[in-house]
Each structure stands twice: as structure tokens, then as C-alpha cells.
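Posting this for the archive.
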Amino acid sequence: MTDAILSGFKGRHLLRMSDLTAAEIMGLINTAMRFKEVSEREVKKLPTLRGKTVVNLFFEASTRTRTSFEIAGKRLSADVINISAQTSSVTKGETFKDTVLNIAAMKPDALVIRHSAPGTALYASKIAGCSVVNGGDGAHAHPTQALLDLLTMTERKKNLENLNVSIIGDILHSRVARSNIAALNMFNANVTVCAPPTLLPHKMESMGVRATHSIAEAVEGADVIMMLRLQTERMAQGLFPSLREYADNFCLSAKVMKNAKKDVIIMHPGPINRGVEIASDVADGPYSVILNQVTHGVAMRMAVLYLLCGGAES
């Protein structure tokens, strides 16, 4: 594996997309593409991070992110430890600070953290004494999701420059949307966000995007359509009348897709709510790259761990 991204990277942590430059993002994408080839071998193992320890500390439920970080670490031969809040001393009243300090005292090389509170990964990076990767903090940031999304777009569309990307759904509570917008702006992509007025942050245009409340308008002309889950666990009552009414107006259905470009790709960070934000026939249809995103998640997280843990030539 090339050390090009290692030599140019100045940071020790990955907390948000602004930690990376466009060149570093492309370096990670190219490295992840090579790691994807490893995952297609009969023996899916490299000695790259042998002797390194990665701890996954998850205070929120997760299937894709936690599992892909675990597989990524193990495919690089790192020792991987998984800790969830439900099985930790947090249930006995231990604070987040003490949890991180105690794990740090065991001298891991990297700590992957997911938490419902924005800023927790940043705080951990100041006290942990090892590399910290933000696995998602509240509605703030999810950098590795954005990176795997960019990998998926690059594989299918070849070039991120001037790409027309529409992000549709619960923008207000979405760390995925924020991280993708920040990243796509680095490549001069044309980003449109679409949601009910109550699920769009104020002054979205200041983030360098175009906002609309019409899914038909968002779909027309898009090269990439990224659907988002309604995050009911983060929202107050009354942001929309009912799931049925939301689906009537913002579900990506076959009818809505009739106005889409013939080579459009459909993405979703998961988990998907079938029939709410996306119809089953669309989620499972020929335009969908949702499972490709999951595959790319392992490859990209291998690239990130390789970057932060100082992977050797393999």
C-alpha cells in the first residue's frame, strides 16, 4: 500500500471532514479501492496493523458502522475490542470522561467513538492519548460515512467535480448530510437538499447548497440521490403530521423516479425504513447502490485505520 496519504496528513484524529483536504480525501479513496480488492480475495487478511489495538466504543446502537470498523481492523490484523454502553460501567454511573481515561490507560492505538452528544469525539481526542475516529456524534458529524459515500460516487461516476447530488429527508438531524455537504463542497459539487420546512436547518444556503421542499424538483437532473432516514429518536413531536403524510410527499417511489436521469444512482446510509423514505422496489432496484455503500464501508474504514495507525508497507 502507498504511503502517500500518510506523508501528507498532518492530523492525528478524524473528527470531521474539515480535518481532511480534497487531496487527502482522494488519497483515502484510492487507498480504499485497493483495500476493496483485499476483501474480494479468498484470504481477506493483511499484516499491515499487526500489533496495533483498536477499540470501538459505541454509546449508540449500530450495525453497519460498528461491524465494518471491526472487520476493517481485523482484516488489517489489528486486535479489535468492542465496547457498548449497555455492557460497560456506564450502566453503573461511570462518566464518559472516566470511561475514556480508563480505556486510554490500556494504551490502545485508536479509539472509534459513537455517541448521541455532539462534540464527544473531539473531547475524547483531547484526553485519550491515542488516535480518535468519530463514528458519529449526535447530529454533528460522521466523517467515515461521508468518505465511503464519496468512494461509492467516485466508483460509479468517476469524478466528483460538478456532480449533481440531491440529499433528501431528515436534513435537520443528519450528521451524514452535514459531513457529505462539507466534503462535496471541496469538489465543487452541486448539492440540493430537500425536506419539509420543519426538517431543514435555517439558512441552509449558507452551507453552499440549494434547498427545496419538492422531491420532484430534487430528483430531476440529479446524478446522485441520497435518501435519509427519519431520525425520530432525535426529534421533538410535531415536526410532521404523520409518517403516512411524510411518505406521501417525500418517499422516493417508482413514480417519483420517472423524472430521474437514466444513469442516476440511489444511496442511503441505512438503516432504511421501507415505505417511509424509500419504496422497496426502488431500494432493491437497478439504480440502488445501498449495499455497495456497505461494502465500501469496510474498505474505507480500513484506509482510515491504516492512515491513523501508521500502516506499514504490505
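Residues 1 and 313 are 6 Å apart (CA to CA). The chain has two domains: 4-138+296-309, 143-293.
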